[in-house]
Amino acid sequence: MSFSDKILTWYLENKRDLPWRDTLDPYKIWLSEIILQQTRVAQGIPYYHRFIEAFPKVEDLAIANEEKVLKLWQGLGYYSRARNLHASAKMVVEEFNGTFPKTYTGLIKLKGVGDYTASAISSICFNERQAVVDGNVYRVLSRYFGVNIPINSTEGIKSFKKLAIEVLHPTNIRDYNQGIMEFGAVQCTPQSPNCSSCPLAGGCVALEMGTVKDLPVKIGKTKIKKRFFNYLVPLEHRKSDETLTQLRQRKGKGIWQNLWEFPLLETEREIGLEDIEIRHSEVLKFKRPPEISLFNSDFIVHKLSHQHLYTQFWILEGPFYRTNAIPISNLENYPVPVLIAEFMKTFKF
User: Fold this and answer.
1) Which residues are listed as membrane-spanning (predicted)?
2) What is the pLDDT of residue 97?
3) CA 43, CA 37: separation in Å to the nearest integer?
4) Buried b (16+ CB within 10 A) or exposed e, 266-294
5) C-alpha span between 77 and 128 (Å, rounded)
6) Which listed residue (13, 33, 128, 291) is catalytic?
7) How many angstroms separate the Cα of 311 from the Cα of each of 167, 224, 269, 316?
């Protein structure tokens, strides 16, 4: 039995029951693939259901307000995926009359769709002969064939793509591609792979050579940047009405583009109460000196892929100039980073 036949047989017997596996609708497959970029399956499933309920068809997503899309995405991180999702939906509707391209060549033109995603959609939906290569596939191929070329090198990317094409199943591309990804996620896992009951054990070079834990090879870890975020949470308690606070929308190409947050004072180091008393006016204007208190004495460390945010929330009570002022009851309507969302849950306004 060939490598691809073994993968296919294993998949048909062991595949997980996932909501996007009962359809060949390219809209739903595309949506699931975008959600699962940088996201675990268990975390992604509720978001998939949420988006399908809110936007049953690509036309519904295309005409949606961006803030609604970002709000639904809240908590998944890597928000450029949501913005690209929205832009691609518009492209499908406006340029392709609401019909997804049926080929790799057409799909890769969509914003946020790269080689892997285009290959996955075209092969799963249309059985096009395209090889998928994601982290799971890299791991399975590198171990089974004993390939120690770094997967994040130019040579490695080309070599593994070539190998993935060579070992494709001759006819059932759709299930084979899903199968090899599933095999890496369930059987040939990063830590503690189940080699004792592996159907590929007989031909696995890494198992024979004792190098399972060493593969795949990856080089050049990105240096983590350390940033200090001081969020200034203004509270103006009004006798005749509810408490006001303030949110601002992040702009530019940095993290959390177009999401909302409390006024931010970013510093190069940890700062204390005296610093906040002196510097709060750089980002927030009060009509008189506010009462200031620190919400969290220990840093909340929010870890992103290439940076760690050392965060403190400062509560500033007093009348402020009301640019972007909102009642606290409206906070839940704004798409915010998960860091802010967790604070909102914890702080008793």
Assistant:
1) none
2) 95
3) 11
4) eeeeebeeeebeeebeeebebeeebebee
5) 31
6) 33
7) 48, 16, 11, 16
> Which tokens is 290 given?
């506010």
Q: Which residue has the tokens 């040939």?
A: 188
Distance in Å from the first CA to the final CA of the chain? 64
CA angle 61, 66, 68 (to 5 degrees): 80
**Domains of the chain by residue range:** 3-214, 225-346
Amino acid code (one letter) for 310 = Y
Out of 3.40.630.30, 3.30.300.210, 3.10.450.540, 3.90.79.10, the CATH code matching 225-346 is 3.90.79.10
pLDDT at 37: 92
How confident is the model at residue 66, as a pLDDT? Answer: 95
CATH superfamily placement of domain 3-214: Hypothetical protein; domain 2 (1.10.340.30)
Q: Which residues is 294 bridged to in the sheet?
A: 314
DSSP 24-93: --HHHHHHHHHHHTTS-HHHHHHHHHHHHHH-SSHHHHHTS-HHHHHHHHTTS--THHHHHHHHHHHHHH
| Stretch 82-106: mean pLDDT | 97
Q: Is 344 strand, coil or helix?
A: helix
CA distance 208 to 225: 40
Phi/psi of residue 55, each to 5°?
-135, 80
pLDDT tens track for 39-67: 999 999 999 999 999 999 999 999 999 99
**CA–centroid distance for 49 within its chain:** 16
pLDDT above 80: residue 277: yes
Task: Grade residue 106 by pLDDT with cuts at 50, 70 and 90.
Answer: very high
